[in-house]
Design brief:
Elements (H helix, E strand, L loop, with lengths): L2 E5 L5 H8 L4 E5 L5 H7 L5 E4 L7 H6 L5 E4 L9 H6 L3 E4 L5 H17 L1 H9 L17 E5 L3 H12 L3 E5 L5 H6 L3 E2 L2 H7 L2 E4 L13 H6 L4 E5 L8 H10 L2 E6 L19 E3 L8 H21 L14
Parallel strand pairs: 1-2, 1-3, 3-4, 4-5, 6-7, 6-9, 7-8, 9-10, 10-11, 11-12
Length: 321
């Protein structure tokens, strides 16, 4: 039996080759595929490999009448309607390990940029100025970092923070305190994290509880002069509330790689605001990470189609159908 795999987003060629070399798999791959063309192609696909560009919403999944599995080359599956996929018996899998280090390193880059005003100083010098007085920053050593979400990426960020002689506290209701203690990290409740942290880095998934968790009420609980880093999901932050807190001095600054929506709208109050470092969702944008998650996604599909083996399932209820 031959399985048809559609890759509707641009993908590392090694992942495509891994699929193509399997004798029971036929691949359709044309780079980033326009939605209308992808809608036609998915009708003949047994499996789908995507990054973030393809929106596997209800209308898209309705066309995939043969779909058995979807592999997301990356962590977030916001672009897949998990409820509809489950109803249709489609197993959705992700690749949580491949971009962990790239994201953790980038998070630390954002933190250093925020602490030392590196982007602003670069822009000033590039503009012909020699201004040393305006960009006095703070050291990381001795500061407390609060990590919200202590999963793979959160733990790697904490490891790097400890190497910089920071104190690290973390909040994650699903992580045992002993695990954190073994790493030199103290688990605390969220209010304690807010009160103690000089820097806060967000690494939690989006849930009803975490959506807009950084808002006027929670910002008021934070230590005055806190700095906030977000390389997770834009929807974790209420932009207007954060902008107001920066203007008032409650928050010293923020470093943001993610937005809601993406790209951010022209009226986003954080864009261009003094004290804010911006990047366009680059945390996982290394050749290493792109290669890793693409190959991981290809292997997930091979195992699913040829062995009935499903790993990193994001909608586990589908396995009970």
């Amino acid at each position: 039996m031959t399985f048809h795999v559609l890759i509707s987003d641009n993908m590392d060629i090694r992942a495509v080759a891994l699929l193509e070399q399997h004798p029971d798999i036929r691949v359709t791959f044309e780079g980033d595929m326009p939605r209308d063309k992808a809608l036609q192609a998915v009708a003949e696909a047994d499996a789908l490999v995507i990054r973030s560009a393809t929106k596997a919403d209800a209308a898209f999944l309705a066309q995939g009448t043969r779909l058995k599995a979807i592999a997301r080359a990356g962590v977030g599956v916001d672009n897949v309607d998990l409820g509809v996929a489950t109803e249709r018996g489609i197993v959705v899998m992700n690749t949580p390990d491949g971009n962990t280090i790239s994201t953790a390193e980038f998070t630390f880059g954002l933190m250093l940029s925020l602490a030392r005003h590196i982007p602003q100083a670069h822009g000033s010098l590039a503009g012909g100025k020699w201004d040393r007085k305006s960009y006095t920053g703070v050291e990381l050593r001795g500061k407390t970092l609060g990590v919200v979400g202590f999963g793979r990426i959160g733990r790697q960020v904490a490891k790097r923070a400890l190497a910089f002689d920071m104190n690290v506290v973390a909040f994650d209701p699903f992580v045992l305190p002993d695990l954190a203690a073994d790493l030199g990290v103290t688990m605390v409740d969220l209010d304690t994290l807010y009160a103690q942290s000089d820097f806060i880095s967000l690494h939690t998934s989006v849930t009803n509880e975490s959506r807009y968790m950084v808002n006027a009420a929670t910002l008021a609980k934070m230590k005055r002069g806190v700095r906030i880093v977000n390389a997770a999901r834009g929807v974790l932050i209420n932009d207007a509330d954060l902008a107001a807190a920066i203007k008032s001095g409650q928050v010293a600054g923020a470093a943001l790689d993610v937005y809601e929506p993406e790209p951010p709208t022209a009226d986003n109050p954080l864009i261009g605001l003094a004290g804010v470092v911006h990047t366009p969702h680059l945390a996982a944008s290394t050749t290493d990470a792109q290669n890793n998650v693409a190959v991981d996604a290809a292997q997930l599909i091979i195992d699913a189609l040829t062995q009935g083996k499903f790993v990193n399932v994001c909608n586990p209820a589908v396995l009970q159908k």
